[in-house]
């Protein structure tokens, strides 16, 4: 049995994490100043981590198998 | 001239920097440009806030039985892509740089995430430098364009929306004159058999 909403959830997570990897790659690979690059990457990573933690903890609270809309 | 700027860019480097090369200027577009670019991203943020308000009202008005955590999750995803969009926009702005060294000008243009163009121009190949400030906002905030006519493969180098273009133009002209003088010195020494 395929849970459509769960597939969308994982697809969006993959897209987001892929985008984050690309951002970090650019910030590090094309840096012109080491300290600025490290600070930018740290700042971005902390924000990303906070959002991911919040996301996963919220997703764990959802009962994916019995997702019901009642009108 | 290097003494006025060198200390500012001592810790800076770029890909392809030569060993004895000294960075004189690192230029990016004026800060107003990134503000204008952030504007759609902040509109998106306002959209998220509006979604939050409307979602709650919509659910209570139509008495929809939905897990509140699902709405929170949708919210978080919107914030996540807002965060990502912010940094992607920043990268597109921040990595567009013009590096003026004591030997050449390097133009690094980041176009989106997966396209990067780098071109360089030796000072001795500069034929003409023109600065332009056009429009009310650029005039007030003193940013504009510099057009460099070259004798190289790329006929024209353009510095886009950089602050203080007149001052930058003067610096480039000085560097060009010095490069031409040094070339003439070398030619003279070759003719005199010193090299």
Description of the molecule:
The complex is a heterodimer of chains A (71) and B (195). Chain A is an all-alpha fold and 71 residues long. Helix content of chain A is 76%, strand content 0%. Chain A is built from two helices and no strands. In chain A, helix 1 (4-29) packs antiparallel against helix 2. Chain B is of the alpha+beta class. Chain B is 49% helix and 24% strand. In chain B, helix 2 runs antiparallel to helix 3 (68-94). The mean pLDDT of chain B is 88. Chains A and B meet through helix 1 and helix 2 of A and helix 3 of B.
> What is the makeup of the main sheet of chain A?
none
The overall strand count of chain B is 7
Question: Mean pLDDT of chain A, as a whole number?
Answer: 89
Shape of chain B: elongated
Structural class of chain A: mainly alpha
Low-pLDDT residue spans of chain B: none
Distance between the termini of chain A: 25 Å
Major interchain interface with per-chain residue totals:
A-B, 31 and 30 residues
Strand content of chain B: 15-25%
Strand content of chain A: under 5%
Number of strands of chain A: 0
Sequence-ordered SSE layout with sheet pairings:
The complex is a heterodimer of chains A (71) and B (195).
Chain A: H1 4-29, H2 34-61
Helix pairs in contact in A: 1-2
Chain B: H1 2-5, E1 23-27, H2 31-62, H3 68-94, E2 97-101, E3 104-110, E4 116-122, E5 126-132, H4 136-141, E6 143-150, E7 156-163, H5 165-191
Antiparallel strand pairs in B: 1-2, 2-3, 3-4, 5-6, 6-7
Structural key phrases:
heterodimer; A: 71 residues; mainly alpha; 2 helices; elongated; B: 195 residues; alpha+beta; 4-stranded antiparallel sheet
Describe the structure in brief.
Chain A is an all-alpha fold. Chain A has helices at 4-29, 34-61.
């Amino acid at each position: 049995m395929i849970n459509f909403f769960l597939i969308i959830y994982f697809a969006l997570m993959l897209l987001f994490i892929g985008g984050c990897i690309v951002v970090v790659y650019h910030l590090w690979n094309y840096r012109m100043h080491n300290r600025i690059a490290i600070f930018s990457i740290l700042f971005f990573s902390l924000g990303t981590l906070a959002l991911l933690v919040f996301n996963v903890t919220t997703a764990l609270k959802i009962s994916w198998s019995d997702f019901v809309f009642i009108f | 001239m290097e003494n006025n700027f060198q200390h500012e860019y001592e810790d800076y480097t770029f890909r392809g920097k030569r060993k004895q090369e000294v960075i004189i200027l690192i230029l990016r577009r004026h800060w107003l440009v990134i503000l204008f670019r952030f504007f759609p991203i902040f509109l998106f943020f306002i959209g998220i806030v509006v979604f939050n308000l409307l979602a709650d009202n919509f659910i209570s008005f139509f008495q929809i039985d939905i897990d509140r955590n699902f709405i929170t999750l949708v919210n978080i995803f919107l914030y996540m892509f807002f965060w990502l969009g912010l940094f992607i926009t920043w990268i597109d702005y921040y990595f567009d740089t013009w590096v003026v060294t004591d030997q050449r000008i390097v133009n690094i243009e980041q176009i989106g995430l997966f396209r990067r163009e780098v071109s360089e121009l030796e000072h001795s190949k500069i034929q003409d430098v023109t600065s332009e400030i056009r429009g009310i906002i650029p005039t007030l905030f003193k940013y504009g364009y510099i057009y460099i006519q070259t004798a190289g493969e790329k006929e024209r180098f353009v510095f886009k929306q950089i602050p203080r273009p007149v001052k930058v133009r003067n610096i480039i002209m000085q560097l060009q004159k010095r490069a031409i003088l040094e070339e003439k010195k070398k030619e003279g020494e070759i003719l005199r058999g010193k090299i």
